[in-house]
C-alpha cells in the first residue's frame, strides 16, 4: 500500500538507499532474499495467530 509508506519513500535518498518488502512471517525463508547483503534490517511485525477461550 503506497499510501501507508509514502512518508518512507519521500525520505532523502530513499530512491537509492531504501527497499521495502512484503513477506509472510509464517513462511520459512520468506525473508532470505530481502535481507541478503543488508547491513541493517528493521523488522516491525509480529505474527498474531493464537486462540483464546477467555479473551480477558
TrEMBL record:
It comes from the Eukaryota. InterPro entries: NAD(P)-bd_dom_sf. This is Dihydroflavonol 4-reductase. It comes from Citrus reshni (Cleopatra mandarin).
